[in-house]
Each structure stands twice: as structure tokens, then as C-alpha cells.
Amino acid sequence: MGGAAAAGIGVAGTLALVVSSLGGPFTQAAVAVVLSAGAGLGWPFFLGIPAKRTNGVILALSGAVSGVAAAAASGPEYLSWTPSVIALGIMAVIVVQLIRGTGQSHRLESTLGASSGVLLCALGAGWIATARFTGMGSMLLVAGISTTVALLVGAINWPDTIVAPLAIIFAGLAAPLAALVLTGVTVIPATAAGVLIGAVLAAVRRLNRTRLRPMPRPGLVALALGPVLAVGSLAYFIDKLLIY
């Protein structure tokens, strides 16, 4: 049931990121800010780390600032501010652990876990960068379709040894088909994007299935939206490296 709910949230988030690009970069950035808030505030609950509220705010702000910066940046380097945002977010996470003081529980786990959340949320700016770089009828659409396919396959309640290869294969097939029918993206970069997106989402699914504790609702939202945000930058860099 959790897998199906996470897939539904992830698909809705993906659809919102793709469709909002029609309204321009700042409309898409507004959607990215909302999704970053959901992913960032819920990520500490997903990992079960201390200082959940403080870390969650840092993660959400990292995603929000990165998304707005991608919408405002002059091209063609639309993610030029994202590394700085990630660095500042990780520094803020470390400061939180220093304030907590020595002897507090799970300091290392909290630092590493929150830092990974900063990375996921900030990389959501890649959806905006992809839309600004080549427009909606390009890699943005390919990434959206392959992400949706991988999420739906990942919702199947089968063992990871079966679902993970299926997610990678179907996402890798859906991407070039979408490219040929709906966009001008060539087969090779579309296939590369689909395979990598499928691999990322399958890996996050595996991470979730190693949990021994029940999933809180904020954690479920973060599980669904975190990897969706991250694959936006993956699509952007594939677009730049293999197409232009």
C-alpha cells in the first residue's frame, strides 16, 4: 500500500513539474518550491534522524533557493548557483550538529542523512533548467515519461530482484519511444536518460525496503518526491552532454 501511495505522489509531482513549465520558469519554480518543501520536511522522518524540524527546514530552503535561482539565472548555465546552494545547505546541517553538542545520539547519521536530503532537494532545479534549456517538447518530456513509468513499475509488490530490472528496462524503452513520437530528441540520449532514471528510482525503492520501522506520512512524501526532484538534474546534464 505504501509503495502504491508513494508512486501516486511521485507521478503527481512529476506531472506538476512538467505541466507547470508551460507557465514559464517562475511558475515551474513555484511548483518546485512546494515539492521541495514536501521532500525536505519529510526526509528526516524517512531516515529517522534527530533534529527533524531544523534539518527539514534547511532541506526545504535548499530546494527552494536552488529552484528560484535556476529560474532567474541567465543561460546557458542555468544551474550555476546550485553547487553553492548545496554547499551552504550542507554547512548549515553541520552547524546544527555542532549546536546539538558532543555526546548527542546519531550525529554522524544525522549529518550524512540530512546532507543527502540537501542534495536531492537542490537538484530539483534541474527540471527548471531542462525546460529553459530546450523547452517542454524535448528532454523534459522524455524525463517526465520515463520517471512516471519507473515509478509505476516500482509500485508493483514484487521482490527487488524482479522489479529493479523491470523498472530500468521499461524506463529505458519508454524514453526513446517518447522521444521518437513526441520530441526531437534522438534515441541514444533518450535511452541513456531513461535507463539512468530507472536505476535511480529502483535504488531508492530498495533503500525504502530495507527499513525495519513503519513509515510515517511525512517520510512517505519525501520518499516519493525526493528522487523525482533529483532526476531533473540528471536529465539536464544528459541533455547538455549528449545533445548539445
UniProtKB/TrEMBL annotation:
Keywords from the named record: Membrane, Transmembrane, Transmembrane helix
Ranges that cross the membrane: 26-49, 56-75, 81-99, 111-129, 135-155, 162-182, 188-207, 219-238
Organism: Sinomonas humi
Superkingdom, natural source: Bacteria
Protein name (Swiss-Prot/TrEMBL): Permease
